[in-house]
Each structure stands twice: as structure tokens, then as C-alpha cells.
UniProtKB/TrEMBL annotation:
Family listed: Belongs to the TRAFAC class myosin-kinesin ATPase superfamily. Kinesin family.
Molecular function as annotated in GO: ATP binding; microtubule binding; microtubule motor activity
Source taxon at top rank: Eukaryota
GO biological process annotation, one example: microtubule-based movement
Keyword Oxidoreductase: no
Binding annotation for ATP: G86, Q87, T88, G89, A90, G91, K92, T93
Protein name: Kinesin-like protein
An example Gene Ontology CC term for this record: microtubule
Limits of the Kinesin motor domain: 3-312
Entry keyword set: ATP-binding, Coiled coil, Microtubule, Motor protein, Nucleotide-binding
From-to range in the entire protein, with total length: 1 to 344 of 669
Length: 344
């Protein structure tokens, strides 16, 4: 099985997009892997991905195809990263969290609550005799600074690396959680502090790290008409996103023997993801899009970000790394990483 899975998800039209009716939809379903896209000049092109989730898709479908295999691998000490990408309003946070982190409607729950539940379930089902603890931390990357969402006084955490721990954040607050309810409560308080993420890492004799990343909106700076500090924020976000694209491309190129250097250090985001993206780690990228013609050009750039990774998929699957569990979240104006846990 490939190490990189790239999917596209189209959310339903919003009430603002709806008045234009079907004419305003710029995509046409071919099958569960392929769709036709009509650009602003009415020219059509076909795109294929590992899976395309259309507007009627359920949260459970996305979880099962994209996340479940990675969560199961994380329990077996294979690192993984699940990333949502796309313009603001495209459905990244909805896919990652659902309508809210404490959402009660099972159907609407997003990837994060489902991943947390599966992690606890897999620990409980484990036949191995062990005591375990899951420690949760949440951080946000904002303007290239890593902030502790559980302790806002720690607003510039450093990123270190060691043989035993891999990439870690010295001094980051870690909250021990014993069941999914405690985990959600902690996540909820961290999210209220609006920043990035939590990381959950699981250590037995083996350890695996799983990182969930809800990226900042990918829309172009010029389109947002940003100035001053907002412009600086947009630049920082672009830096993170292009660094992420470059790292994935470099990983695939190095497998072809073309380049040795993987530019993880070009952004805080890629540095934190370093040991969950390279090596034997598994990556799932969910490209979230509006189906509306109004957003056609942003959707096209989102498909291209994903398609670039697909082109190199056959190479990427040979990349070597080792496993863990984390969650990164990002509001439209910041890039955040959420959740890491250690089970020991
Ligand atoms: P983003 O995080 O990409 O900026 P959101 O996830 O906040 O976007 O989604 C924008 C709006 O669209 C929200 O009101 C959200 O509830 C809604 N939405 C997104 N995806 C879906 C979906 N698949 N089904 C129903 N509503 C959705
Ligand atoms: Mg969001």
C-alpha cells in the first residue's frame, strides 16, 4: 500500500452559493476517484485521486478510508500524518473536528474525535499486558512561533530532536488523559485558547506518533487584499504551506536519487512534522474544496497541490521513517499543531 494517500472532499454548497443553482457548480462526478472540473473559461479537465468524497459523503466515510488505516498503523509504531488542506471555508476544520469538538451527533463527528476513540479502543483491546498513559499537549504555530495552548505564557517553544523521542518540544505542557472524555475536555480547553494543536504519542515497547494537521487557509495573499499585520500572517502561512509542499516533493525526489537535502527546517510546521512525514511514515492529505464556480481558481490550485504529491506517489511509498500520534489544527489565520500523546 502506498505511503501517501491523497483525497479530495467537496463540501455542500453554502446558502450564499446556492442561489446560483446547479450552474454554479464547477465539478461533475465521474466515479469515486475521478471528476471533471470546469475552469473559469469553461474548459474542462479531468482529475483523479485515491478517493473523491462528494458533497453527500459522510464523516465516517472519510475517516474509514483516509484515517483508520493510519491510526491502526500508529498503534503498531508506524508514524503517520493526516493533513487537511484548502482555502478558508472549504471544510478543513469540519472534516478534522466536525461542527465542534464536543459534538454529540455521532454522524457528524470529524476525524479527531474518531481517531482519539480508536486509539483508546485499540489500547483497551491490546492483549499485551501493560500500563499506559496518554499525554496530551496542544500547540499552535503562529507567525513561526510555537505557542503552548495549555499555557499561554509559553509562547515561543523550541523544537528539539533526540534519538529516543524523535522530534519534541521541550517544556511543552503535557496533560495525562485516561479516557476519550478527558481527552476531549482537554482538547476543548486548548481549542478555546485558539491555537494549534495537541500531540498524542503512544509508547509501548514500540512507539508511534500520529499527527493531525488542520492547516491555515491556502488562498492567495493578493486575493485577500491583506495589509500590515494580516499580510505578515498571510506570508507566514504561505511559507508553511509551500515548505510543506517542498518537503513532500524533496522526499520523493530523494527516492529517485535526485536530491539529498530535505528542507524540513524551512518552517516550524515541517520541522515538527519531520519524523511523521519521512521514512516509513504514512501520510494522508485531504484536499478540501468548494464545489462552487465562484471558487474555481482556488479549487484548481488545491487540486494541483494534491496532484503534485500523487505524481510522485510511487516513489514516496519507499521513503523510510518511524511511527507516533499527534494532532495539529490551524485556524484560517494561523498554522497550528494539536495533540501529541505518549502511552508507556
Ligand atoms: P475551513 O476550516 O476550511 O476554513 P470549515 O470547516 O470551517 O472551513 O467550513 C466552513 C463552513 O462549511 C462551516 O460552516 C462548516 O460547518 C461547513 N461545512 C464544511 N464542510 C462541510 C460538510 N462536508 N458538510 C456540511 N457542512 C460543511
Ligand atoms: Mg478551519
Amino acid at each position: 500500500m502506498s505511503n501517501i494517500t491523497v483525497c479530495v472532499r467537496f463540501r455542500p454548497l453554502t446558502s450564499k452559493e446556492k442561489p446560483h443553482g446547479d450552474d454554479s457548480v464547477c465539478i461533475r462526478c465521474i466515479d469515486s476517484e475521478t471528476f471533471i472540473f470546469k475552469d473559469e473559461k469553461d474548459e474542462e479537465s479531468m482529475f483523479s485521486f485515491d478517493r473523491v468524497f462528494y458533497e453527500k459523503s459522510e464523516q465516517a466515510d472519510v475517516y474509514q478510508f483516509l484515517a483508520l488505516p493510519i491510526v491502526r498503523d500508529a498503534a503498531n509504531a508506524i508514524n503517520g500524518t493526516i493533513i487537511t488542506y484548502g482555502q478558508t471555508g472549504a471544510g478543513k476544520t469540519y472534516s478534522m473536528e466536525g461542527p465542534g469538538i464536543l459534538e454529540c451527533d455521532e454522524q457528524k463527528k470529524g476525524l479527531l474525535p474518531r481517531v482519539v476513540k480508536e486509539l483508546f479502543d485499540s489500547i483497551n483491546l491490546s492483549e499485551e499486558e501493560m500500563t499506559y498513559s496518554i499525554k496530551l499537549s496542544m500547540v499552535e504555530i503562529y507567525m513561526e512561533k510555537v505557542r503552548d495552548l495549555f499555557d499561554l505564557s509559553k509562547d515561543n517553544l523550541q523544537i528539539n530532536e533526540s534519538k529516543s523521542r524523535g522530534i519534541f518540544l521541550p517544556g511543552v505542557t503535557e496533560i495525562t488523559v485516561r479516557d476519550p472524555a478527558e481527552a476531549f475536555q482537554s482538547l476543548y480547553s486548548g481549542i478555546a485558547n485558539r491555537a494549534v494543536g495537541q500531540t498524542q504519542s503512544v509508547n509501548r515497547t514500540r512507539s508511534g506518533k500520529l499527527i493531525l494537521v488542520d492547516l491555515a487557509g491556502s488562498e492567495k495573499v493578493e486575493k485577500t487584499g491583506a495589509e500590515g499585520r494580516v499580510l505578515e500572517e498571510a506570508k507566514a502561512i504561505n511559507k508553511s504551506l509551500s515548505a510543506l509542499g517542498n518537503v513532500v516533493n524533496s522526499l520523493t525526489c530523494s527516492m529517485q536519487g535526485k536530491a539529498g537535502h530535505i528542507p524540513y527546517r524551512d518552517s516550524k510546521l515541517t520541522r515538527i512534522l519531520q519524523d511523521a512525514l519521512g521514512g516509513n511514515a504514512r501520510t494522508a492529505l485531504l484536499c478540501c474544496c468548494s464545489p462552487s464556480a465562484f471558487n474555481a481558481s482556488e479549487s484548481l490550485s488545491t487540486f494541483r497541490f494534491g496532484a503534485r504529491q500523487v505524481i510522485h506517489e510511487s516513489m514516496a511509498k519507499h521513503i523510510k521513517a518511524s511511527p507516533h500520534v499527534c494532532y495539529c489544527e490551524d485556524k484560517s489565520d494561523t498554522v497550528s499543531i494539536k495533540a501529541s500523546a505518549h502511552v508507556s
